[in-house]
Specification:
Blueprint lengths: L7 E4 L4 E8 L2 E4 L2 E8 L2 E4 L4 E14 L2 E14 L4 E3 L2 E8 L4 E3 L2 E3 L13 H11 L5
């Protein structure tokens, strides 16, 4: 059986996007983005990209450029050498390379909740995380 073919969309270096963006599959941003991003796919922030967001909610993200705002990734976040991230991050797996300028808090997800991240309010999603964690007061 062949793997499912995924579409790749690229916002070029001359692209400036302001608003809320929802997509599936994969996206690469090499220009400027301002707003919110929501996807069940992957996202790459290129070295030339500057993203000022309220929140990014994706399956996985690889950052080479600059992100200002909070990031939620159900699978993984990777901050590559030379990247700049200012905001809180939450993910199941995190990789931060050397020479990364990171200012924020990290929340590790022990297990991906059975609640669909994109179909519930953030309060309900956070409650699902608390119920699945081993947190003891």
């Amino acid at each position: 059986m062949e793997p499912k073919k995924r579409n790749l969309t690229v916002f070029g270096p001359e692209t400036e996007f302001d608003g809320d963006l929802e997509y599936s599959d994969d996206l690469v941003i090499t220009g400027k983005f301002s707003g919110n991003i929501k996807s069940n796919g992957s996202l790459e922030i290129a070295r030339t990209a500057v993203c000022k967001v309220g929140k990014i909610s994706v399956q996985s993200i690889v950052i080479f450029g600059t992100v200002i705002g909070d990031i939620e990734a159900s699978e993984r976040i990777e901050m590559c050498a030379g990247s700049k991230v200012s905001g809180d991050v939450s993910t199941a797996r995190l990789r931060i390379a050397e020479n990364v300028d990171f200012d924020g808090q990290v929340t590790m997800l022990d297990e991906i909740p059975s609640v669909d991240l994109f179909s519930v309010a953030s309060r309900e999603y956070k409650q699902a995380l608390v119920l699945k964690s081993d947190f003891v007061q």
